[in-house]
Amino acid sequence: MRTNVGPADRHARITIGLAILALGWFAGSTWAWIGLFPIITGLTKRCPGYRPFDIDTTRSVGESKAAG
């Protein structure tokens, strides 16, 4: 599977994932583990949820699929 998570999306995923993990950890909730999903997708630069919708945040706004 090719990468489909761009730099800005990647940083946001990791930051939000860490925040969810920390909040859940301090609250003593098992929901904290949900924070791992955005962290993992940010680190691997691949999001399986983007694939069916052909979403790719690595491309620029004006760039076509044929160019990438």
Write up what this structure looks like:
The protein has 68 residues and is mostly helical. It has a domain at 18-53. The chain is 44% helix and 0% strand. It has two helices and no strands. The longest helix has 21 residues, at 7-27. The chain starts with 6 loop residues before the first helix and ends in a 24-residue tail after the last helix. The mean pLDDT is 88.
SS summary, helix count: 2
Strand content: under 5%
Main beta sheet: none
Order of helices and strands: HH
Number of separate strands: 0
Average pLDDT score: 88
Principal-axes shape call:
elongated
The parts where pLDDT drops under 50 for at least 5 residues are: none
Subunit arrangement of the protein: single chain
Blueprint of the fold:
Blueprint: H1 7-27, H2 36-44
Helix pairs in contact: 1-2
What's this entry about, in short?
With 68 residues, the chain is an all-alpha fold. 44% of the residues lie in helices and 0% in strands.
List keywords for this structure.
68 residues, mainly alpha, 44% helix, elongated
